Amino acid sequence: MGGSFSVLALFFKLGLQPDVTTLNILIRGLGHDNRVDEAASLVHKMAAFGEGCKPNVITFGTLIAASCKQGQNDKAIQMLRMMEKNDSKPNVVVYSTIIDSLCKDKLVDEAFNLFSEMKRKGIPPNIVTYTSLLQGLCRLGQWKEASRFFKEMNSNEVWNQNSVMEGYCLQGDMDKAKRIFDLMLKKGSIVDVFSYSILINGYCNERRMKKAMLSIEEMTRKGMVPDTVTYTTLIGGFCKEGRIDDAQNMFSKMKVGGPLPNIHTYSVLLDGLCRNRQIDMALKLFGELQRRIQEFFNGGATFKS
């Protein structure tokens, strides 16, 4: 992560302010390195970096996921409360992440308290929420309660297939995610760019780039056009594997044939270059980003934020 922090250093050195997207990347990297305390410290300092750096749902969600991965459920719940104080509304993914972690630690009563809380707030549970709680009851041998809860699951509209697939992707269970995807195809359900992007993001997070590329080739054959999010996800996946040439080729393809890279795409590639110690390339790319931002404010370029 030392390379990732050099991205932040570049922003300050060149007189530019980092944005929340850049800082979220750093927090995610710290989380992956199991440096949760440092990530939490950065979250507390973000607002001081200037306008546009206020922590958002992604910021807190990333830190909560990292805390849960380390078994630090108390810290995850502290972050949940901090979200509310910062006017950043927790979503179903945030709640489900903590509930799943609590259930794995056999803290099922605490998990059900959060389950009740999210429903009071009008946040509908998804398949991950229900599955985590059901598994938690089963781990404790509470079969009667598990049976009752299973009936509740079936009486609620929680079986949105994209949500199910995304839930498995978040858990890193790509085999189950792919089975849901194949079931959608078999049943004739609507499979669009969003569906493919969920699957591709899951593969990239698990560093299964061959599967990710096969998925994008398949969607292209079906006449679907990958969007900026899809390409940015692939660039991030290549960077994680140290395949900088492939990441840069994908970036060049975006600039030539579209969709055009946005500031998040630049941030992802900058982060990858720095983490792979390609500092000269990072400086060159940062200069290009500077020029594009300047052209945008002068009205001479199209640039999506």
From TrEMBL:
One Gene Ontology cellular component annotation held by this UniProt entry: chloroplast
Signal peptide (from-to): 1-22
GO annotation, biological process: chloroplast-nucleus signaling pathway; mitochondria-nucleus signaling pathway
UniProt keyword annotation of Cell membrane present: no
Keyword set, alphabetical order: Repeat, Signal
InterPro entries for the chain: PPR_rpt, TPR-like_helical_dom_sf
Domain of life: Eukaryota
SUPFAM superfamilies cross-referenced by the UniProt entry: HCP-like
PPR repeats: 19-53, 56-90, 91-125, 126-160, 192-226, 227-261, 262-292
Transmembrane segments: none
Gene3D superfamilies: Tetratricopeptide repeat domain
Short name of any one Pfam family annotated for the protein: PPR_1
Annotated NCBIfam families: PPR (TIGR00756)
Annotated family: Belongs to the PPR family. P subfamily.
UniProt name for this protein: Pentatricopeptide repeat superfamily protein
Annotated source species: Prunus dulcis
